[in-house]
Amino acid sequence: MRVLYSVVTVLTGTTLASAQLTFNITQALQPGNLQKYKCLNNDRLAAEMPECIRQCQADGDGCAVDGFAYHCVNCNVYSDLIEPCAFPPSLGGYGTFILAELGIARPIVSNMCNFFSVTLYAAYAGCPQPLSKRKTDEIVVNEPTITTT
């Protein structure tokens, strides 16, 4: 799963040196998004992603594996962990990920992380999976945030 956040970092212009949460409230709150991301887990997300990304999704960063709010706000740490697994040697990794697949993954991850950066755990209300709310809150409180509408 960590590759998803590398995709966001590499393709959305967010630099690893600049750890700030950036999100668009209007886009995140579009009709249907809450239902789309309700109780999101790795199996549902992996079904939308290119095959090469799925092999890296099981790698964790010490938090609940299905807690996408945490993974999205913790993308800088996740990126450092996943890039070697997902990226091909030409990009410094040992994986089979190609740029065409980055293009497929980018909008999926970008929209998902924008949603979870805005709503945090709203889509997990009443869901069975364990989450890392305290760790997420600690990151959010200590990060500069940019909000656009």
Automatic annotation (TrEMBL):
It comes from the Eukaryota. The keyword Signal applies. Keywords: Signal. Residues 1-19 form the signal peptide. This is Extracellular membrane protein CFEM domain-containing protein. It comes from Amniculicola lignicola CBS 123094. The lineage of its organism: Eukaryota, Fungi, Dikarya, Ascomycota, Pezizomycotina.
